[in-house]
Design a protein that fits this description.
Layout lengths: L1 H23 L4 E4 L2 E4 L7 E12 L2 E11 L4 E12 L3 E11 L4 E12 L2 E11 L4 E4 L3 E4 L4 E4 L1 E5 L4 E11 L4 E10 L4 E4 L3 E4 L4 E4 L2 E4 L4 E4 L3 E4 L3 E5 L1 E5 L4 E12 L4 E11 L4 E5 L3 E5 L4 E5 L2 E6 L6 E13 L2 E11 L4 E5 L3 E4 L2 E4 L2 E5 L6 E16 L2 E15 L2 E19 L2 E18 L2 E7 L4 E5 L43 E3 L17 E3 L1
Antiparallel strand pairs: 1-3, 2-3, 3-4, 4-5, 5-6, 6-7, 7-8, 8-9, 8-10, 9-12, 10-11, 11-13, 12-13, 13-14, 14-15, 14-16, 15-18, 16-17, 17-20, 18-19, 19-22, 20-21, 21-23, 22-23, 23-24, 24-25, 24-26, 25-28, 26-27, 27-29, 28-29, 29-30, 30-31, 30-32, 31-34, 32-33, 33-35, 34-35, 35-36, 36-37, ...
């Protein structure tokens, strides 16, 4: 009796399930056909519909030249000029479609075209889920909207969300750019492309590469997050993350950021670079440093902030470095508070207690300018309270002091210095046996000749006043000129030293002061560093 009761319950459950299924599943309806054929010899359990065939199923309507409707399943095979309309908005065309009324899947083959509003998808093969309005292809497909054409080997199209997923051999073509990618998600309504694989974007002049990010074709906004590079005719930009607007030219590079100016052979680096491509400006902060390279050597410079702006001369740049500037080159090192570099003639201007070291020589002044000339020698101008110290040994220093000085550099080596005005000198005189005494002299004009960074000869242009003191008669206070200060402890002795510590001059208010560039002049530029500084 219990067995019979359980069997009756099972039958009732099965009947209820079938009843519910019959309520939710609707048979495909044949609305029209010119001819109807049925032959077990051709296809079993199928009727053939020929001519002006119209088939409907729920919110789907289908037209075709001929079809097979199967009596033992809720399927239709449609042939020739197949056209399906769903919800009066989505149109599917193909030469052949297999439609399953139970799953609402349409398998379209040959000359497939799917139209959804302003978007058209074409492929040789497409499987379309009518429930979810999602199309799938795996043998090349093309999506075209109002302004863009996208192709890929594999793709998915989400009609309800105006969204497409592309995989393998992805290409997007618009009036403004061409995109090549491995993997891409694209929104057809707003032109937003989400990049999730190696991608290169070719604009009219620029090329962008990334492996993660987004590109909005309408707003021009670009976000690049992995292995990102922007190449322009003048420079390239590399960073962990790049945010860029193609329309305005504004950009921000964050994390290991690097802008390389090929024309002027300079590189600016930092963890944050804010730039404008159209204005050709850039501001670098957070570990900001600057590299100026040539065939011979490279200058490495670090400061709290770097800024590059275009010069009035086309294709030339002005680089401004301020607060705690340090630089290193094999033959020369330096420190100052603020600096300007002019690419047009490779001129460097140093402000606020600058110091330059070359070999055993230390040069200081209120203002220093280094000029690279087309024909050697290059020049170093030291103006106002110029002071040169050359270390003879750890306790002895040759010293030259004057109003202004002009240094001459050949093959990256300082070989001559001219003192103009108020010249004073302390020099350890030598003969073949060694140091014979301390020579102290004063002359308005002095020439110093160096060899391998050491003083070889001093020539007094006007009659000097001085004396040669035996070493044992020299008092400690007589060994230095007024203003003597040996800065060897803050000298960058290798490239890494430019990042160690702050400058020995720190402005009281570093938030408001900014360098205002003034082009170098031939006649004693930069008498007063305040000419180049202004409170904003």
């Amino acid at each position: 009796m219990k067995v019979l009761k359980y069997r009756l319950i099972l039958i009732l459950i099965l009947l209820c399930t079938l009843a519910g299924y019959s309520q939710t599943t609707k048979k495909v309806d044949i609305e029209n056909a010119d001819f109807l054929q049925y032959s077990e010899a051709i296809i079993s359990n199928a009727q053939r519909l020929i001519g002006n065939v119209i088939i409907s199923h729920k919110n789907i309507r289908m037209w075709c030249d001929s079809a097979y409707s199967y009596t033992n399943s809720n399927e239709v095979d449609a042939f020739g000029h197949v056209h399906i309309i769903k919800d009066d908005t989505l149109h599917l065309y193909a030469d052949f479609v297999n439609y399953n009324g139970d799953t609402k899947w349409a398998k379209a083959r040959r000359n497939v075209k799917l139209i959804n509003k302003s978007t058209t998808l074409t492929s040789d093969s497409l499987d379309f889920d009518m429930n979810q309005n999602i199309g799938y292809y795996d043998n090349n497909g093309t999506i075209v909207d109002s302004t863009r054409t996208l192709t890929s080997l594999i793709g998915e199209y989400y009609a309800d969300f105006d969204k497409a997923f592309f995989k393998t051999n992805v290409e997007a073509i618009t009036e403004d750019y061409t995109l090549h990618s491995d993997t891409l998600i694209y929104f057809t309504q707003n032109g937003l492309a989400q990049i999730v694989g190696p991608t290169t974007i070719y604009e009219e002049e620029n090329t962008l590469y990334t492996e993660d990010g987004s590109y909005n074709g309408q707003t021009g906004e670009v976000e690049l997050f992995r292995n990102s590079v922007i190449n322009t005719p003048e420079q390239n930009i590399i960073a962990d993350s790049i945010f860029y607007n193609r329309n305005t030219g504004d950009g921000t590079a964050i994390g290991n950021a690097d802008i390389h100016d090929f024309e002027n052979r300079l590189i600016v680096r930092g963890n944050r670079i804010v730039y404008n491509e159209k204005d050709e400006t850039a501001v670098v902060t957070d570990s900001a440093h600057f590299l100026l390279y040539s065939e011979k050597d490279t200058l490495f410079l670090h400061a709290d902030t770097l800024k590059t702006i275009p010069d009035s001369i086309p294709d030339e740049k002005v680089v401004m470095a301020y607060y705690g500037v340090k630089f290193f080159r094999e033959d020369m090192q330096g420190k100052c508070d603020s600096m300007l570099y002019w690419s047009k003639d490779s001129t460097v201007q140093l402000f606020n207690q600058p110091v330059i070291w070359s070999g055993n020589n230390q040069m200081t002044a209120n203002y220093i300018e280094m000029i690279t000339q087309t024909n050697e020698p290059d020049l170093i101008k030291m103006e106002q309270e110029a002071f040169i110290i050359a270390m003879e040994d750890t306790s002895k220093f040759n010293q030259i002091k004057g109003r202004d000085m002009l240094g001459y550099v050949r093959d990256n080596e300082l070989f001559k210095i001219e003192v103009d005005g108020n010249g004073q000198s302390i020099y350890y005189a030598k003969d073949k046996h060694g140091i014979i005494g301390l020579n102290k002299a004063e002359s308005s004009n002095i020439n110093i000749f160096l060899e391998e960074s050491k003083v070889k000869k001093i020539a007094f242009i006007t009659s000097p006043e001085g004396e040669l003191l035996p070493l044992f008669d020299v008092l400690d206070e007589e060994k230095t000129l007024p203003g003597f200060n040996w800065f060897d402890t803050i000298r960058p002795k290798r490239m890494e030293d430019i990042f160690r510590g702050k400058g020995y001059i720190i402005p009281e208010s570093i938030d408001e002061t900014i360098i205002k560039p003034t082009p170098p002049q031939n006649d004693s530029p930069g008498k007063d560093p305040e000419d180049f500084m202004q409170m904003e």
